[in-house]
Amino acid sequence: MNKGVALILIVVGAAMLIWTGFTYTKKEKIIDAGPVQVSADKQKTVNWPPYLGGILLVGGIVIFATSKKS
What we know:
This protein is α+β, with helices and mostly antiparallel strands. It has one domain. The chain contains 2 helices and 2 strands, in the order αββα. The chain has a two-stranded antiparallel sheet with strand order 1-2. Helix 1 (about 1-20) packs antiparallel against helix 2. The termini are close together.
């Protein structure tokens, strides 16, 4: 089980180093007055610091290296 968790941490950490965030589009209501509704698409951005990916990557490597052979 530890090797599985370690591999997941390694993959997620590497992905977080490569992609430091993502953008998605959300539809928001601007006016909602009975039958009249006006909405607009707004872009939202989610970012995370690159060092977090490095921490996950190193942690996964350490767990993988120290896990016992089964």
